Amino acid sequence: METILKVEGMTCGHCKAAVMKAVEGVSGTNNIIVSLENKEVTFNTSNAETVEKVKEAIEDQGYDIV
C-alpha cells in the first residue's frame, strides 16, 4: 500500500536526507520519495505497523507528522 505522510519542519536538503534515512531504516519500506517542496514522504509497505514505525523514526529525527 502507498502511504503519504505530511512532515512538518523540513526546510533544506539536510532535512530531506534525514527523513529519507529515517524511512530507509525501517524494515518493510520501499519506493521512498521525500518531497521537500510538498513537505511529505511517500513510501510503499504491506504492513500498517510499519507505517507507525516510520512515523516514530521521522519524529525521532525531530520532525512532526501532521
Q: What is shown here, in short?
A:
With 66 residues, this protein is of the alpha+beta class. It contains two helices and four strands.
**CATH second-level architecture:** 2-Layer Sandwich
> Could you give the order of the helices and strands?
EHEEHE
CATH hierarchy class name:
Alpha Beta
Average of the residue pLDDT scores: 97
Biggest sheet overview: 4 strands, antiparallel
How many E strands? 4
Could you say which overall geometry the principal axes of the C-alpha atoms support?
globular
CA-to-CA gap between the ends?
19 Å
Helix content: 25-40%
Q: What strand line-up does the widest sheet have?
A: 2-3-1-4
Describe the structure.
With 66 residues, the chain is of the alpha+beta class. It has one domain (2-65): Alpha-Beta Plaits (2-Layer Sandwich), CATH 3.30.70.100. It is 38% helix and 30% strand. The chain is built from 2 helices and 4 strands, in the order βαββαβ. A 4-stranded antiparallel beta sheet has the order 2-3-1-4, covered by helices on one side. A hairpin with a 4-residue loop joins strand 2 (30-35) and strand 3 (40-44). Helix 1 (13-24) packs across helix 2 (48-60). The longest helix has 13 residues, at 48-60. The protein is globular, with a radius of gyration of 10 Å. The chain starts with a strand and ends with a strand. The mean pLDDT is 97. This is HMA domain-containing protein. Pfam families: HMA. InterPro entries: Cu-bd, Heavy-metal-associated_CS, HMA_dom, HMA_dom_sf.
